[in-house]
Fold these 3 entries.
Entry 1:
Amino acid sequence: MTDDTQLTLGWEEWLSLPDLSLPTIRAKIDTGAKTSALHAFDIEPFGSASRPKVRFAVHPIPGNDDMTIPCSANIIDRREVISSNGESELRYVIETTLAVGGQSWPIEVTLTDRSSMAYRMLLGRQALRENTLVSPAEKFCQPELSYDVYTAAKLRRVTRARALRVAVLSREPGSYSTARLVSEGENRGHVVEVIDTTRCYMAINARAPEVYYDGKRLPRFDAVIPRIGASITTYGCSILRQFETLGTYCVNGSDGIAASRDKLHAHQVLARHRIGMPTTAFAASPKDTKNLMDLVGTAPLIVKLLESTQGKGVVLAETKKAAESVIDAFRGLKANFLVQDFVKEAAGEDIRCLVIGGKVVASMKRTSDGDDFRSNLHRGGTAKVVRISKEERDVATRAAKAFKLGLAGVDLLRSSEGPKVLEVNSSPGLEGIEKASKKDVAGMLFDQIELRVRPAPLKKKSSTKA
C-alpha cells in the first residue's frame, strides 16, 4: 500500500521487494547515487522484442551462496551506469515495488553483480519519494527484518509467480496440444518456445554439458515439456537426458518416457508395482508360439507391436489359428510383439484418465467406431466425459507414479476383475480430453510447472552437540 506519511530512513535499512519474491534484503541508502542497484547474477534477457523480459538470480544473504532466489521482470530500459569507482557498465533496468516501514511504491532498479559489496542493494535518490527523509547519521530507523523468512515454509508463502522460460519439445508446432501449451503459457506471462527435437544436438562433457539448436547453444530453460513422437523416442530421450543433466525441470523424465513407449517394459513396470493389467506374454522363439498363446488364455487374443501408438500395430485375432497367422506375419517382419488377453466385457470402450502431478484431473470414456475394437480417437472413436470410481482413480495415479510421469494419459479397461491398465501414455493429446471434460488441462499443467519451479529454501545448518 502507498502512504503519504513522512518516512524516515537511515543510511542502512531492511527492505522488501515483494514482486521479486525478496521479502527481506538489507540495503544501503545513498543519496549521493542517482540510480538504485540490485545484486544479480546469471542475468539473461528473453522474450520477444516487443515484450522483452530479463531473468536473473539473487543471493539475498551476503556470504551465503546456498540461498538463491530466481527472479524475472519486464525490461523497461538499458542504461549506461557509472559506478562509484568510475567504471562504466551497461545495465538492464526493471521496475519493481519497494516496501519499507509499512509503505510501498514502484521504483526503477538496475541489475548488476554486487557479490563483492557488503550490501545486496543500493537505494539511490531517484527511488526516494518526496515525503522520504534520509538521516545519514542513523541506521535502521524502520523495523528490522530477518533472514529467517527464507526457510522453506515461510518462503512458500511469499513466493510470487514469475515469468518462466519454457521449452516444448515437439516436431508439430501446429498441433492442437502444442498450440494450446504455447497459448496458455503466454497468457500467463511466460515465454514458451517450441523446439524441434530432431534439430537439437549435444555437447557432452563434465564441465559444461549443453544443448545446441540450429548452430546455437540453447538458453537455460526453467522447464521442459516433452512431446516426443514415437518414431524418435530414443533420440528424444537422449536430448531430454541432457536437459536433466543441466538441472532443468522436465515434466516427464527420459526414463519414464522410454519405459512407457516399450510395451514389454511398460507391462513389466506395471507388474512390479502390482497394478492390474490384461494377462500378457512375450517370447522371442517361433517354437514358443503355442505356449505363448496358452499363457494368455483362450481366443480372442490381442497381438500388439511393442512400439505401437494410436492403435497402429494392434491386431485382434478372433481364433487361435488367426493368432498364429498374425504372429507368423510379425515374426516374418522381424518385429517385436506381445500377446494379450482380450477383455471382452470392455466392449470396445476404455477410460482415458489424465494425471497431472499425481492427481487425476480429467477423465473420458472412449468408444470405438463401429466394429473396430480399438477406441483411439485417431481411429474415429468418440469420447464423452465419465465419472470414475475411487478404485479407477487410484489405479491411474499409481500407474503414472510407477513411471514417474508428471503428465500421463492412463488408459483403463473396465473388466469383471476391476480396472486394468491398457497403456500409460507419456505424451497424451489434449484436444480430446479438453473438449470432452470442458476442463482447462493445459492450465492445470502450467499450475504444476509453476509450483515445481520455485526458489530453493534456506537449509538450516545442523548443530551437533559435543
Entry 2:
Amino acid sequence: MNANNPYWQYSQALSLKGSERWEVYQRLQELEVICSCQSHEPLRVSLQTPTDLILLWCVSRRVTSGRSELLCWLKRCWSTTANEIQ
C-alpha cells in the first residue's frame, strides 16, 4: 500500500467527553497528526497515512480505556511470542 496515495486520505469526527477530547487532541498534535478541536464540537482528525490511523487508535484507546483493561492488554502483549504474531 502506498502511504502517499490520495485515495487513502480520510477525515473522521470523534465524539469524546470534553476532557478526553482535549487529551486526544493534544497528543495527536504532538505526534503531528492533522486535527482540530473547537469547544462543544467533536474532534476532527484528517488521516493522511495508515500510520495516522494507528496513532489515532492508540491514543484514543489509551485515553478511553480503563486501567484494568489496559493492564490486561499489556500483559497479553508481554506474553505473546514471535510465533504467535506470525
Entry 3:
Amino acid sequence: MNIAVSPTAEGASVRAQVQWRRRWESELSLTEHAELADFFRKSYGRTGAFNAQPFQGSRSWAGARPEVRIIGYDAHGIAAHVGLLRRFIKVGGADLLVAELGLYAVRPDLEGLGISHAMRVTYPILHELGVPFGFGAVRPALEKHMTRLVQRQGLATLMNGIRVLSTLPDVYPNLSPTRIEDVIVVVFPVGRSISEWPAGTIIDRNGPEL
C-alpha cells in the first residue's frame, strides 16, 4: 500500500483541487482500466519494479478485483485511488462480512494528498455498502503513520499480533498457493461496535488480497 506524507499547507490546496468519484467495477471502460493500470505502475513502481508488475497492459488490479472504486481526479488525470470489496473473512474461525480496503495509491507528484483525506471520502461509502466493518491490513513499517491517522480522525482501530492468510492470485509449480503474513489490521466500525469484532489471531481472507 502506498502512503503519502502528511499534508502540509500546500497539501491543503492540493486536496481542494481533487474531485472524487465513486465508480462501480462494471461501469469502467477499457480505456479507464488502461489509465488506472498506468497510474498504478507509476505509483507502486516507486517502491520497486516488482510491485508494478501486476499492472501490465490494462490490468487495473493486483489480486482480488475491487467491487467499487473511489477515484480522485485533478486537472492532470487520476490523482488517487481506493478500492473496496465486500467479502466474508474468517476471524478466529467466525465468518464475518467486511468491506476490505486496498489498492490505495497516490500519484507521485501529489505528496500533499494523504490517506487521511481519502478516508474522509471513503467512510460514508462504507456506510452505504451496509457492512458491519471495514477491514484493511498494512505492513508493520506503516504502523506509525496509521497510528497518527487513527488519532487524528478516530475512525478506525489498529490491531497487532494478527496473521492474515490469503490465496495467491496465480498458482505456480512447486510454490504454496497461499501466503500468511504478520500485519497491522485496521478495522473501521461501520454498522457494529468495535467490541463486536470477533476475537482471534488468525484472519483468513478466503481469497487473494485486494
